[in-house]
Specification:
The complex is a heterodimer of chains A (174) and B (129). Chain A is of the alpha+beta class. Chain A has five helices and seven strands. In chain A, strands 3-6-5-4-2-1-7 form a seven-stranded mixed beta sheet. In chain A, a hairpin with a 2-residue loop joins strand 4 (87-98) and strand 5. Chain A is globular and about 50 Å long. Chain B is built from seven helices and two strands. In chain B, strands 1-2 form a two-stranded antiparallel ribbon. Classes of the chains: A alpha+beta (174), B mainly alpha (129). The interface between A and B is medium-sized, with 13 and 12 residues.
Chain lengths: 174, 129
């Protein structure tokens, strides 16, 4: 099982904001346990999707050279359950970003209905030995391409987002 | 120039947002760890919020000098040495270290900082009227 909790990026503005979608389907195994006969997308996994949307934005800002991890969920509020057939749109904005972390705000919506609101804190993992096994440049690049980051991505000047060198050469940055 | 009330109000907002506590829990005497439930990652979050709220830069380790507590020169058998206490006092003029000095177990250090200490620290950065 691969840990993808977004399906595709719709917008990706370097250093600023990103929009991604998650289509909820009855084919997802986990929904049949949560709950039997009444499938509901777990809000924890909606937070994970928002963290992937925002976390990749934070990581891209650092040229994917920092190991960005979700360190804390400062706020999470949900207004109604998301169910199979819903398309969740995740919008994330970087509120603050520094060399040791970032604060990201995010919303989850179904159509024009606000489903959830979060504020996330990302930190950088310093332990290189853990980082090495968790972040492989080739896998990361494949994931970014699968999610369409470079199709919709814009750099800070508004030009197309390019694949960073640290991921292209296939070697570990640092 | 900010007033003490301005500083307290913004510090309170930062703590409410970072720690998910109610406004009335954030009293000047409340301890960040013991009373408000702050964990280590929260301190970095709080630093980010204070920097933004007051438009200041907070050098890492200034508000919470962890480097002293992990330095063998200043800690022996889980307790901060007299030399270490001098360092802490010099680095944390905004905090009241009297009680900690009486029994300086490293494990209790995290429970030292109060909301009032944090306000004093910010006041030293922004200046107060």
């Amino acid at each position: 099982m691969r840990w993808f909790w977004i399906d595709r990026f719709r917008q990706f503005e370097s250093g600023r904001r990103a929009v991604a979608v998650k289509n909820i389907s009855l084919a997802e195994e986990h929904l049949h346990d949560h709950f039997p006969g009444a499938p509901v997308m777990p809000n924890t996994l909606i937070i994970e999707g928002l963290a992937q949307t925002g976390g990749l934005l934070v990581a891209e800002h650092g040229g994917f050279e920092e190991r960005v991890i979700l360190a804390k969920i400062a706020k999470a509020r949900f207004h109604f359950p998301a169910v199979p057939g819903d398309t969740l749109e995740y919008r994330t904005t970087i509120d603050d970003i520094q060399k040791d972390g970032a604060i990201v705000s995010g919303t989850s919506s179904v159509g024009d209905r606000l489903q959830g609101e979060v504020q996330l804190f990302f930190a950088h993992l310093n332990d290189a030995s853990i980082a090495e096994s968790l972040f492989d440049p080739a896998n990361l690049l494949a994931m970014l391409q699968l999610l369409g980051v470079f199709k919709v991505g814009r750099d800070p000047q508004g030009g197309p987002l390019t694949v960073p060198k640290s991921l292209l050469n296939g070697s570990q940055p640092h | 120039m900010a007033t003490k009330e301005d500083v307290f109000s913004k510090v309170r907002t930062a703590l409410v947002d970072a720690l998910g506590v109610d406004e009335d829990e954030v009293t000047p005497q409340a301890r960040l760890v013991g009373d408000l439930g702050a964990e280590s990652i929260d301190f970095l979050d709080i630093v980010f919020r204070l920097e933004k709220a007051f438009d200041i830069k907070i050098p890492r380790g200034e508000l919470f000098p962890e480097d002293i507590l992990t330095n063998a020169e200043y800690v022996q058998n889980g307790r901060v040495t007299a030399h270490g206490l001098e360092q802490l006092k010099a680095r944390m003029p905004f905090a009241d270290l009297t009680a900690f000095s009486a029994n300086p177990a490293v494990q209790d250090f995290g429970n030292l900082l109060t909301v009032e200490d944090m306000c004093r620290y910010v006041e030293s950065k922004v200046g107060v009227a």
